[in-house]
Amino acid sequence: MTYQSPDNNPAWQGPPPATQQFTHGLPPAAPLRRKLGIGAIIGIVAGVIVIACCGVTGIVAVVSGGPQPEAKSSPTAAAVAATVPAAAAPTPALMMSAPTATAPAATAAPAPPAPTAPPAPTKLVMPNLKGMNAAVADDKLRKLGFTNIQYGSQDENDTLVLMLANWTVTGQSAKAGSKMLPDDLVVVTCTKQS
What we know:
Layout: H1 38-64, H2 75-83, H3 92-96, E1 124-125, H4 134-144, E2 148-153, E3 168-172, E4 179-180, E5 185-191
Parallel strand pairs: 2-5
Antiparallel strand pairs: 1-4, 3-5
């Protein structure tokens, strides 16, 4: 098949003009899609973060003007709520039913008890750990209630105490029988040498 060129030359054998459609079974080219700009991407990411943080219900409540989520109660709010008489606030059951009886007279709430001083921490008695396996010594100290235990090595080649079961206690920072607080530092010196 021959096509005529734009200048009406019948011998021209070039491709058909761009205005004609191909019928070679190829699908038409897809329309070009517009890419999102950086501003749109930032807006989408910010929206996703807001939804993840606030939740869908919080956003719906803000947009619709509905009730706001309640804040967590603090000790001060609890104290104020305790001083308000219980009969002053209507209960849902009373609001929905017809008024058939009167509420009893409000009585003054008892005063909250005075804050007491926290009890003095109990002191623990340090056991004798020398000669024990470090893992057994650690278990014993923790069962007694000690919480701040550190292990050190007296060996020149092995300076880091990693697996307590491989070590033997050679010394301790507090004497056996001394009284200590549970969070006082206890340093246990160990060796890998047998």
